[in-house]
Amino acid sequence: MSCTVSIHPSGRTIAVARGTSLHDALAAAGEGLALPCGDQGRCGRCLVRIEGDVKRRSTARLSAEQVAQGWALACQTTVEGDLRVIVPSQEELLARPEVIAGAEKAAVTAQACEHAAEPWVRALRLTIDAPTLEDNTTDWERLQREFARQHGVRGVVASLRVLRRLAATLRAGDWTVTAVLARGTWLEPDAPPRLLDLRPGDATGPSYGVAIDIGTTSVVVYLADLASRALVDQAAAYNGQIACGEDVISRIIYARRNGGLERLRSLVVETINALLDEVFARQGIAAEDVYWATVAGNPTMIHLFLGLDPQFIGLEPYIPTVNHPVPVRAEELGLRLNPEAVVDCHPGVGAYVGADIAAGVLRSGMHEGEVLTLFIDVGTNGEIVLGNSDWLMACACSAGPAFEGAGVASGMRAAPGAIEEVWIDRRTAEPTLRTIGDTPPKGICGSGMISLLGELFVTGVVDKGGRLNRDLDTPRVRLGDDGPEYVLAWAGDSNDGSGSQDGGRDRNNGRDIVLTEADIQNLIRAKGAIYAGFSVLTESVGLTLDDVERIVIGGAFGKYIDVEKAVAIGLLPDVPWERFEYLGNTSIQGAYRALLCRECRAAVTGIGNKMTYLELSADNRFMEQFTSALFLPHTDLASFPSVKRELARLAAPPGSEEGGDT
Amino acid sequence: MSCTVSIHPSGRTIAVARGTSLHDALAAAGEGLALPCGDQGRCGRCLVRIEGDVKRRSTARLSAEQVAQGWALACQTTVEGDLRVIVPSQEELLARPEVIAGAEKAAVTAQACEHAAEPWVRALRLTIDAPTLEDNTTDWERLQREFARQHGVRGVVASLRVLRRLAATLRAGDWTVTAVLARGTWLEPDAPPRLLDLRPGDATGPSYGVAIDIGTTSVVVYLADLASRALVDQAAAYNGQIACGEDVISRIIYARRNGGLERLRSLVVETINALLDEVFARQGIAAEDVYWATVAGNPTMIHLFLGLDPQFIGLEPYIPTVNHPVPVRAEELGLRLNPEAVVDCHPGVGAYVGADIAAGVLRSGMHEGEVLTLFIDVGTNGEIVLGNSDWLMACACSAGPAFEGAGVASGMRAAPGAIEEVWIDRRTAEPTLRTIGDTPPKGICGSGMISLLGELFVTGVVDKGGRLNRDLDTPRVRLGDDGPEYVLAWAGDSNDGSGSQDGGRDRNNGRDIVLTEADIQNLIRAKGAIYAGFSVLTESVGLTLDDVERIVIGGAFGKYIDVEKAVAIGLLPDVPWERFEYLGNTSIQGAYRALLCRECRAAVTGIGNKMTYLELSADNRFMEQFTSALFLPHTDLASFPSVKRELARLAAPPGSEEGGDT
Fold first, then answer.
1. Beta strands A176-182; A121-127: pairing state
2. Which residues in B lie closer than 8 A to residue A140 (C-beta atoms)?
3. What are the pLDDT digits (tens) for A480-501?
4. Domain count, chain B
5. Domain end point (choices A178, A200, A222)
6. Contact between A133 and B615 using a beta-carbon 8 Å cutoff
7. Please, are residues A439 and A504 in contact by the beta-carbon 8 Å criterion?
8. DSSP states of B252-286
9. Has residue A109 been placed in a domain?
């Protein structure tokens, strides 16, 4: 029996025998779809929408809702009658990631809050009577008088630096000036308004602020217009301190050297300043127009940034100098903003749970509802918070920088050219890649690591102990200088799956992009530490991971994280995928919200105060759980049922799969 | 007839003829007294006390009370019967200046007030529980907890600098520390207590403060122990800015040069730092133990010290940037104190009446009583305040630095070796000198200038126009390189009147000490400006100088000022001498009181706020009065009746004097 398949939007039609694979039918009509996973229904790249009669070999990748809406994977579907097929463009698939089966992915954007709070900084225009012999009040008292008269603002204070320019500015503007005023702070809400800057004439142009996230591995800045609350630009780079140690403990040890603390301090300030210079240059903005900075980071990062001695964070009983740092002027820290800019380091919670996590909780909103939520920030430290509006419990576990693309052979940050998604053909072990910006691959970022390791594991290239299968008949698995490795992309290779046409310029510096067995061990230790953290935290409050209603993932991954692969390697617990939500770098997003809103800033402090900190270094359960988690996905496969099923499905002979074969 | 004169304390007795000069009688008995003024009853150096019958040729130098007490000038007294004479020692005469006829002189000392106010800064000892895994509060919150528990102090704030040393200090002192805490300020009495320093262990030793007077010509520092309120040391030097101009206007002009303001700022900071180094070294005190500084000075000096642009002080309508400067940390100004030390610049009043005057009024106490008082601070600017507890009116007139020993050929500060009192023998024009510290003369200080010019005038060496009498038969008046001059001391000369025996080492650098006609003109302009200020100020409130009940003189003179001579040259008004009171450098004394007392500091602000400022630059009456005052003592000799009488007495033939001759 012949069935007619009409294909849209091309309008092509083809007749095929009943039982033909839909993928083959489309290919015969000249509309071949990529099959990166090798016809195994894992990659979701052959997703189409159908109207008509089909048989599905597997719907494992699709939700019931998606099946009801007619979504189908062409490789897993056979034609059973006349059929109308809508083929989404690649762009459409990528732009609407939510339609991609199962693996919950959400585009991450900086979002301001809904509060209508007064901004930290406002530019006010003042017109002032010129002095005379009869009205010979000083410049400063004259200005104060007009603040009160024209804007109802009283008791303004100013630093010596601002006073030093006062006389000249008043006269340069012919007694019209624009005052940049900071009103109150979170620490001293009743503090007098502070004059940060005075510009001659009517210069009520934009005033800017920056949110800064200082990660152990990566530093991110967001530039915002404080009045319009618009995100203007952003930039990220590796923390220059990496040269002095890859994780928090190494940095603390380095800081004990003679001059070590000052070197770490200046390295991170240089990193931040370079990012500031980058966005200011790109936007044509003067550093002097930036008046506020919020800073999030773990306690050690904040200590190093402020030049505070972190050494007692590293020694039992793990005591930071301060959880609530004082506001500091940019000049005092050497930040290239307006010298008077207020630099607000968000408060920490415990020795290893910091402002980054309070900011992340703010972004997640978990502190506002009753839904029991597990928040995890995957960074060099994996910090985990469990709770809801009633209570919050936090812990931290040292994951290392592997998920941030550091400390692994071909790792890189989530930047253009970073491989962020990988599919491996089970039969050939050949990879298909997707890179950020669809440019030729330069390295592998964190989400790419998860995707790659997950693929290598489910396709059997890597075993549960993390060892590469050297018996496979493929040049991709080889013995490199650092031991066994998998070659993800050959030097000059352009099979990045994006059809890039630039002929291989500027990629990977002429080296193969590989994942070594040592890298795999790093990744397994990292995911094991985080998973052990989940387990101990839930256990400590008498719950199990199944009780968790929502799992929020934060981290410096790319735009997406492949939850399925993260579960496959045992990084995330095996609970229904719809419970997962990926929010990207929650630390910078929380800092960004606090930059734009006093209420959000106050909420960060409130979150920090409410959070109970569980010190894992003092917890034997953690080491037990960690040891159990040093396998893919875990020693106890029973706690990963979906992974167990998938492994069984892939390992079984074709006939045993659900539905008929072609 | 022979009379018996018994002399005490020596016990000698001599018989002399009736009518013998008492001075001659004493000389015959081997008890010759110095007669610096040449037997004219002007110098008071032959003052003795008598019991018995005498005739007085003149009692002009003595008050009625002193005559009643038996005081007499030996040179002006003849023996009329048996007599008992008590000869005070030189030391006694100098140590009890109040017995010296007429010229009111008071020893000037730094005096703390009588208030019992809490000091600005206190050192508190704290013992802190060491942290444990159970009690793992941060270092800073732990310290805060103990501030509240042990001292009832809450909400302490600290700068980043102090926080940076916190962790190490707590542990270095094995959890006992000494906190140096500043409580509130005059600007923000409700401001949170501020931790200025943290010392390991129990280190509740002294905390120091400095009062600084920045004069246009001279800079003075007083070092005090803040807890015991004791004056520890003091030092003074010329303001290094003199190299850039001698008066306020020259400095303002210099500040307009490229880099000029910064150069002036750093010059005065260097001057202050050198004085601080000097007293700290002498007392063995560390700069880090000095936590508070009060600064008085005229508005231009305060502007330059703070790096504020003074140029609009110099241009009509004469507008300072600020009258009430913000408190600044020592570090920000480059002062070598504890970097966290609070530097409190006292408030100014108008463009040319500053914190120095408010401080001086505080010292004078004129703001507290009903006595109509005229306060004059003789410096490079002569500032004058008239009023009492009901009202205060102030003006300033540019005198130039002559009275501070600058800008005149042989001028120097009131320091050891400075000539501060001069007597001239009318017959020979030979001088007798008294120097500070009774050391060989090195130059002439301000009070010496007044004394010298007064003597030159009343002895006829200088005429009322300020010209030297070149017809006199004396080598003292000669034509020097800079025109006519009077030689006060020859190079290597030791006739300093003090019997110094050091043979002329280290004196005057081998040059004669002279007063040139140009110097005299400088002095006349200076005294004329000040006198014109008195006149206009009293006139502006409908009073005359006769209405003034008390005249308080401040200024960087030596220990004394010779009021008689100051009246003789027309610097001070000719009112009864008992109305005068000399308080020395009132600016530093006011700053010193405010350093030790919050109430005094608040009073300085209150005084400044209460003071009405009269701008003389806009007042035609001032120029008229100034022109009239450019003579010795004044165009209108009638307003100087005592000077007129004295000139008549000295000019008259011997027979016309009161009483008989020998």
1. antiparallel
2. 321-324
3. 988 999 999 998 765 444 333 3
4. 4
5. A200
6. yes
7. no
8. HHHHTSTTHHHHHHHHHHHHHHHHHHHHHHHHT--
9. no
